[in-house]
Specification:
By secondary structure, the protein is α/β, with parallel strands linked by helices. It has 3 domains: 12-103 and 181-197 and 362-423, FAD/NAD(P)-binding domain, CATH 3.50.50.60; 117-169, no CATH class; 201-359, FAD/NAD(P)-binding domain (3-Layer(bba) Sandwich). Helix content is 23%, strand content 26%. The strands form 8 sheets. It has a 5-stranded parallel sheet, with helices on one face. The chain has a 5-stranded parallel sheet with strand order 13-20-14-15-16. Residues 1-8 have low confidence and may be disordered. Belongs to the HdrA family. One of its GO terms (molecular function) is metal ion binding. Its cofactor is FAD.
């Protein structure tokens, strides 16, 4: 197959990002016969979904969707997974791209069996970014219990004494501190950017107190607290004193629908907070939960029914009003907040044990813009140019979306990538 000017066309597809959208795109293309490269900057696939306790629509744990996808990847010789890799540059045109990758050293080779002996002897610790910095982990670490590939990582900051101990403890000659950063060039015919999203930096929202007061957390932090493999093994407790919270407040649209931060609706935040209310209710049947909102957005009948059921709970209070300011009660660590109830016009003052900010979804491409011929909207999402073709954005790289919508979109982008190869 050749392009119009007789340049050779690659039959390969590169998927940038190994989250749920990237996995779906890669599997859809590979299982109809196309060679696919999954390029993931983290040490493991799974993306944001792997950090969740449960996800909609069925409130499944992440193992439910990820394990079967990992098995499909293992069983498919058409898929090559490249972790700890970032796209440095993309040159070329649809059907004929040259991609330069930058691959960071893991300091662990494929001999690793994830036995964990290195972690046992390692004394150095680093911030656990998988748990959003809420705890620390060994500098010799498995990214998380669902990591794929199931292979340890040695942090570059590891002290020399620990390096020696880890190498000595490894029975499989899997640790290699001589590894260096390397480059790799790939020839591909189409690229799907499934670079996902990150929680908006709540510290930038001055009036909501994140970072100043210990008992203010974000929605993703609550998700990790509730997760069995999280920093508290699934127990939702206050960061300041490990106390079980009796009153919990949620601030919706924390940074979203705000011209000073994210001007758009992040789509997932309302349903995430409603889900979090069920987490809290399961652990604390008598806890009082206050949800401060501009609008509750529940797309679809199933989600609307979920919302209606929570409204029947006598200890869940929905307050239509935007939180204007927060503070900390002296001596207790409790959080005080002030909001205007737009239904009554009254100013509401409330004290809660724990405050959760429903921070918005920011595309990774807004912060780390790919070095490629792509079009971005003003919010940093990648705009698909189907007329030009060749490169496409899937899932939350293209727009705010939940898991179901992201997967549907990823299937479509796999087809668009295939069409690029077939038509040229």
């Amino acid at each position: 197959m050749t392009t119009d000017n007789s340049a050779p066309t690659s039959g390969s597809i590169m998927v940038v990002g190994g989250g749920i959208s990237g996995l779906t795109t890669a599997l859809e293309a590979a299982e109809v016969g196309y060679e696919v490269f999954i390029v993931e900057k983290e040490p493991s696939l799974g993306g944001r979904v792997s950090q969740l306790k449960q996800y909609f629509p069925k409130l499944c744990p992440p193992t439910c969707g990820l394990e079967i996808n990992y098995k499909r990847i293992k069983d498919n010789p058409k898929i090559t997974v490249i972790t700890m890799a970032e796209v440095d540059k993309v040159d070329g045109k649809p059907g004929d791209y040259t991609v330069k990758l930058k691959i960071s050293p893991r300091y662990v080779n494929e001999n690793c069996t994830a036995c964990g002996e290195c972690a046992k002897v390692c004394e150095s610790e680093i911030s656990n970014e998988y748990n959003l910095g809420m705890d620390r982990c060994k500098a010799a670490y498995l990214p998380h219990n669902m990591a794929f590939p199931q292979r340890y990582v040695m942090a570059p900051s590891m002290a020399q004494d620990d390096r020696d101990r880890c190498k000595e403890a490894c029975k499989f000659d899997a640790i290699d501190f001589d590894m260096e950063e390397k480059s790799l060039d790939l020839k591909v015919g189409a690229i799907v950017w499934a670079t996902g999203w990150r929680p908006y930096d709540a510290a930038r929202i001055d009036n909501l107190g994140f970072g100043r007061y210990q008992n203010i957390i974000t929605n993703m932090m609550l998700e990790r607290l509730a997760s069995p493999n999280g920093p508290t093994r699934g127990k939702i407790i206050r960061p300041s004193d490990d106390k079980a919270p009796a009153t919990i407040g949620f601030v919706q649209c924390a940074g979203s629908r705000d011209e000073n931060h994210l001007p758009y609706c992040s789509y997932i935040c309302c349903m995430a907070s409603l889900k979090h209310a069920t987490y809290l209710r399961a652990q604390y049947p008598e806890a009082k939960i206050y949800i401060y909102y501009i609008d509750i957005r529940t797309p679809g009948r199933k989600y609307e029914n979920f919302y209606k059921k929570l409204k029947e709970d006598k200890n869940i209070f929905f307050v239509k009003g935007k939180v204007a300011e927060v503070g900390e009660e002296e001596g207790t660590g409790n959080i005080t907040l002030v909001a205007e109830d737009t239904m009554s016009g009254d100013k509401v003052r409330q004290t809660v044990d724990l405050l959760v900010l429903a921070t918005g979804m920011q595309p990774n491409s807004a912060v780390e813009r790919p070095n490629a011929d792509l079009t971005f909207n003003s919010d940093g999402f990648i705009v698909n140019d189907f007329k030009k073709g060749g490169m496409f954005a899937a899932g939350c790289a293209n727009k705010p979306a939940d898991v179901v919508t992201s997967n549907q979109n990823a299937t479509g982008m796999a087809l668009k990538a295939i069409q690029t190869l077939v038509r040229r």
